Amino acid sequence: MAAKGAFLNHISRESSDINRLAEFYKEILGFEQIESPNFGEFKVIWLSLPSAGVAIHLIERLPESRLPEGPYSAAPPTTRDPKYLPRGHHLCFSVSNFDSFVRTLQEKGIETFQRALPDGTVKQIFFFDPDGNGLEVASREDS
Q1: What residue range is the signal peptide (predicted)?
Q2: What's the CATH fold of domain 75-143?
Q3: How far is Cα 27 from Cα 91, in angstroms, rounded to an integer?
């Protein structure tokens, strides 16, 4: 039997530079830094997106880890192009100020791939965070 009342609690991202990644998510998507527990042996930064009720936990990467840092280091160079993200691994957020958001990405020099659903109802923009994790931002109507 499936769990009842399940909801997304948080998403975690491992990084060798959690401060850089935290600044990106705060500046680009509006996350707010919240209190993080002290794990002692490694650093964490917890971020919250109050409008969505979701959190991201940024976790200091083990220096001796043999796993790739992120998709950039694990994949061939062609997958670094955001045009591959609509069918690849990514997290999606929605914003009501889509055109303004796109201008912000352009002003910051972030490479993007933009498209819209065939019926034109939803616009999408795809890009990578500083560690190479895929992101999508979709348009939404103001409530």
Answers
A1: none
A2: 2,3-Dihydroxybiphenyl 1,2-Dioxygenase; domain 1 (3.10.180)
A3: 17
Q: Which fold has domain 9-61?
A: 2,3-Dihydroxybiphenyl 1,2-Dioxygenase; domain 1 (3.10.180)
Instruction: Give 84's DSSP letter.
Output: G
- pLDDT per residue over 73-96, tens digit each? 455 555 578 888 877 778 999 998
Residue 53 token pair: 């009720």
pLDDT for 54 equals 87
Strands 134-139 and 123-128: antiparallel
Asked whether residue 59 carries a pLDDT value surpassing 60, the answer given is yes
Is the pTM of the predicted complex or chain greater than 0.85?
Answer: no
Residue 63 CB partners (closer than 8 Å, separation 6+): 16
Quick one: 18 exposed, middle or buried, by C-beta within 10 A (0-12, 13-18, 19+)? Answer: buried
- Span(s) in the chain for CATH 3.10.180.10: 9-61, 75-143
Segment holding 104, helix H or strand E: helix 98-107
